[in-house]
Design goal:
The longest helix has 24 residues. 37% of the residues lie in helices and 18% in strands. By secondary structure, it is of the alpha/beta class. It contains 28 helices and 25 strands.
Length: 931
């Protein structure tokens, strides 16, 4: 295998880079689409196979491991250097195949779980910077029946790869069981070799010939699309569904005979049918759609796993009123010309034609069509057989994708569609019409196209729809991280408020979920209909009939307005800082190789394309430490508007600013509650969010945290008491709440004590204060040196034992274990292991904790013998802490209770620890109510 250029820093987990190559054009397109929408599920390839007979999960996993070692592309990651992506191959990846046992479920439940699990696994995003963009899950249905759910990223896998993977899996697994060597072909090439060939080809004379053909074919071609049911949002979305129909067994014989009679291939016949249908459906005489070709013209590529697929643009000029037979002939002539020039990569085609960019649409094509036999051959390998099955639709790239797949069970016609644009009923109508078009032309190939009956659709979309709260709820529920949603109007300054319950498959951080969902709404809902805020709850109150009881949802109190500067959008005039604009203009001139750039210059009109855009954005990031993305450039492609958007400068009319002191605390609603009691947790929102579901419906649960605060010198100079007062302001205690409880871990427990004191002084009823592992400030330092040393050694030994037992028991990843100790953490960073770096959440937690610890050193707790305190002790602290009352002395009552929690410090707030905490809180609330 040939290396390409130099090898950069090693990837994580000690993997060794064994080669680096340019990305192929399809990989480059995947990279660009991923830049526009990181983790784009539309780029996931989902495959489902049934396996029947005598098979072992361990054997299948071992077979997949051998396949991954055979094919370098399955050990590849994509990294960026100077705005350009490269593929890097590592020596090995740690592949594991999860097994989900459904055998104990009733047959009906078992069968229904397969699609839902398949959809969940298919939508999980890939990180392109991590090698091994391939995963498999085995569902055990019966002792001799299983389902293999395979998900691969499109940058390393295509439809033909399914066939290669199936053949090698069956042969290698059966060989392992039989104790023989597998009979698989030697691989003359690897995917990186193909990438090098393609790079050379793009610089050759042959490519120039291809370019001439495509310029003549597509220059000034109109953009073709099927009118959607709903208006597009400002950016493209990937929400997907797929509807299919299985044709009768004799359908295959009919289309085979019709294609032979017309002397065209089955594929050519299919393109003629779909183009005729689309022409009649839209009334457009110029029909364009995409279609995929395998791209494996060399026989040495046939046995490789990889992405060789290329998207061709098929353009049909359908003026007049030809018969279908005449249309087939002209269609086939056009198709032959396209197939003779199929080496033009779609990404290069877009750059060459350079159509106007629209972040809500794909360039050149909005519709795709494919026709093929099933890639996996149903066949027996040793004591088991592999059978192809319809796969999931994790996300869409196109508005509409029409697919025909031939299997032994018959031909299946499917339409994959963007659910943000089309209703299910519309797609069902399209599917019926497609089938009826086939029936009509098979029965009478000499019929004029005008004789095809056009189906009636609902009203076409208008520029602006009327939205009510239920529409907003529907858009929220369509997001994969949302299980339930409710929108409640508060009127006046409060406005409408949205409340969501995370879905079981939610992987977004809960404190960031409101911002993620607000961006999702902005892409689909008119600005004047957006809710003012989004709150995350663990459950919504329900009426007796199971519907959401909106009257029981508590709206948050109106918060003081923060200082806001209006920024011009849409058609408003935007004026960038002249110096910044001159610097950006210099970058544009260099990257685009143009003599001059004016404020009105359009990046794409100057010859820019997606790859050049990536280079320019990387240069802006490096020079200015700003992070614009492709979506911004598509939305604001002129120099002045792009610069103004990046640096936030506007001369649009600015409304008078409403000045208010900035509060570093913000509040998250975990559960609104239906009663008069509220629990406020401090920081650590990820640890406390489960608490809401463990407490009674009547109890509201909130979290106030500083993780998005600007931790500057002004905040660092505030006293502990001042920080507590700001937290109280952020709590926005609703008037219906008559009793409050505070919960804090470590130094946040100390803060909880001070917050409770100030609330009582303000006349609030504080029922209890839960302080977890919270020693009194200064107590440890007040102990003799020998005692401090003994306690420190004691704690370190216990900590090492605890986490070692955890990692050996498989309850903790090794990399997380190594991060728990300063020495190993330092080594991870020294050797450039990326996972050795703290995550943004860990960095924020460390910064906030450091701020509070510094402030607490000057804090002197009031000696009030507070009777509301409850101590909670994790395994991080010796049982003596209970007797010492964590060093709080006269500040707490002498009979203060101490509850033991399982786990080490933050670990103690896992699912079991949260239940123990909730039980302690419930007991305290009940005893207070009885009094």
């Amino acid at each position: 295998m040939s290396a390409f250029e130099k090898t950069p820093a090693q990837p994580e987990d000690g993997q060794q880079i064994i080669g680096e190559f340019p990305c192929t054009q399809t990989q480059l397109r995947c990279w660009i689409l991923n830049q526009l929408n990181p983790g784009n599920p539309g780029l996931n390839v989902a495959v489902r196979w049934e396996i029947r007979g005598n098979f072992k999960a361990a054997t299948l996993e071992a077979a997949f491991r051998k396949i991954i070692q055979r094919h370098e592309v399955l050990r590849t990651r994509i990294v960026e250097k100077d705005g350009r992506p490269y593929q890097q191959v590592v020596d090995s990846v740690d592949f594991k195949m999860p097994v989900i046992d459904l055998r104990n479920m009733p047959p009906e439940t078992r069968k229904s779980r397969v699609p839902s699990i398949g959809e969940e696994t298919a939508r999980v995003p890939f990180d392109l910077s991590k090698a091994g963009l391939f995963r498999v899950t085995l569902l055990m249905m019966e002792n001799d029946v299983g389902v293999l759910l395979i998900t691969a990223h499109q940058s390393c896998f295509d439809g033909w790869s399914i066939r290669v993977l199936g053949r090698e899996l069956g042969e290698i697994a059966s060989a392992i069981d039989a104790g023989r060597q597998p009979d698989v072909p030697e691989l003359a090439l690897q995917y990186g070799d193909y990438a090098l060939w393609q790079t050379e080809y793009l610089a050759s004379y042959g490519f120039e010939t291809e370019s001439t053909f495509w310029r003549e074919k597509l220059t000034d071609a109109p953009y073709f699309e099927v009118s959607p049911d709903r208006p597009r949002g400002p950016v493209k979305t990937t929400s997907a569904d797929l509807i299919s129909v299985l044709q009768p067994m004799d359908f295959g014989d009919k289309i085979d005979a019709a294609a032979r009679k017309a002397r065209v291939s089955l594929y050519s016949y299919g393109t003629a049918v779909i183009s005729a249908m689309l022409q009649r459906l839209t009334g457009e005489n110029c029909v364009l759609f995409g279609s995929n070709v395998a791209g494996r013209e060399d026989t040495d590529l046939e046995n490789l796993i990889g992405v060789f697929i290329n998207t061709l643009v098929l353009k049909y000029d359908m003026g007049g009123d030809p018969t279908f037979a005449e249309h087939i002939r002209s269609s086939n002539e056009m198709l032959e010309g396209v197939l003779n020039h199929q080496r033009m990569p779609f990404n290069e085609l877009v750059g060459m034609i350079n159509p106007p960019r629209d972040p809500s649409r794909n360039p050149l094509i909005s519709v795709n069509f494919n026709l093929s036999k099933a890639f996996l051959e149903d066949r027996r390998y040793g004591e088991f057989e592999l059978i192809s099955a319809p796969s999931q639709s994790p996300g869409v790239i196109y508005d509409l994708s029409f697919m025909m797949v031939g299997r032994p069970s018959g031909w299946r016609m499917s339409i994959e569609y963007n659910t943000d644009l089309f209703d299910k009923e519309t797609i069902e109508l399209f599917l019926r019409y497609w089938k009826e078009t086939y029936d009509a032309v098979l029965a009478n190939p000499d019929m004029p196209l005008s004789a095809l009956t056009v189906p009636r659709r609902g009203a076409a979309p208008v520029a602006v729809h009327r939205f009510d709260p239920h529409d907003v709820e529907g858009v929220l529920r369509a997001h994969p991280s949302v299980g339930e949603a409710a929108v409640v109007s508060g009127g006046g300054q409060i406005g409408s408020q949205a409340f969501v319950v995370p879905s079981p498959s939610c992987e977004d951080a809960l404190d960031r979920l409101p911002a993620i969902l607000m961006r999702h709404l902005e892409a689909h809902v008119p600005g004047d209909k957006l809710p003012k805020e989004i709150s995350v709850l663990m459950r919504l109150p329900k009426s007796a009939d199971g519907s959401i009881d909106r009257s029981a949802v508590r709206l948050p109190a109106s918060a003081p307005a923060k200082a806001v500067q209006a920024v011009a959008t849409g058609g408003a005039a935007m004026k960038a800082d002249p110096e910044k604009m001159a610097a950006v203009a210099a970058l544009w001139k260099q990257i685009l190789n143009v003599p001059a750039v004016t404020p009105e210059s359009d990046f794409f009109a100057l010859g820019g394309h997606s790859l050049l855009a990536l280079r320019m954005l990387a240069a802006v990031r490096e020079k200015f430490n700003e992070k614009p993305n492709l979506e911004l450039l598509f939305r604001e492609p002129t120099l002045e508007r792009f610069t103004a958007s990046v640096f936030g400068v506007s001369t649009a009319p600015v409304k008078a600013e409403v000045q208010a002191p900035e509060n570093p605390w913000e509040m998250i609603t975990c559960k609104p509650g239906t009663g008069t009691e509220a629990v406020y947790t401090l920081n650590h929102p990820f640890l406390y969010y489960r608490l809401a579901s463990e407490l009674p419906e009547t109890v509201a649960v909130y979290n106030v945290n500083m993780f998005n605060a600007r931790l500057d010198d002004a905040l660092d100079s505030k006293s502990f008491e001042e920080i507590a007062a700001l937290a109280i302001d952020a709590m926005q205690i609703p008037p219906q709440v008559t009793s409050v409880s505070i919960v804090g871990l470590c130094v946040n427990g100390v803060l909880a004590f001070e917050i409770a004191r100030q609330l009582r002084e303000a006349g609030k009823n504080v029922q209890f204060t839960a302080m977890i592992d919270a020693w009194a400030p200064g107590y440890f330092r007040s102990q003799p040196k020998f005692r401090q040393k003994r306690w420190t050694i004691e704690r370190r030994v216990k900590r090492s034992i605890y986490f070692t037992q955890k990692v050996l028991g498989g309850r903790m990843p090794v990399i997380d274990y190594l991060k728990e100790f300063n020495v190993t953490l330092g080594l991870l960073r020294l050797f450039g292991v990326r996972k050795g770096e703290y995550s943004p959440e860990e960095v924020a937690n460390e910064a906030v904790t450091g701020l509070l610890v510094r402030a607490s050193r000057q804090y002197k707790p009031a000696q009030t013998q507070d009777p509301s305190i409850v101590f909670l002790r994790s395994q991080a602290h010796h049982p003596r802490a209970r007797k010492l009352r964590f060093g709080w002395g006269e500040a707490v009552a002498k009979d203060t209770a101490c509850v033991d929690l399982s786990g080490w410090h933050e670990d103690s707030l896992s699912s079991d620890g949260i239940r123990e905490l909730a039980s302690a809180i419930s007991r305290k609330l009940q005893s207070a109510d009885q009094k």
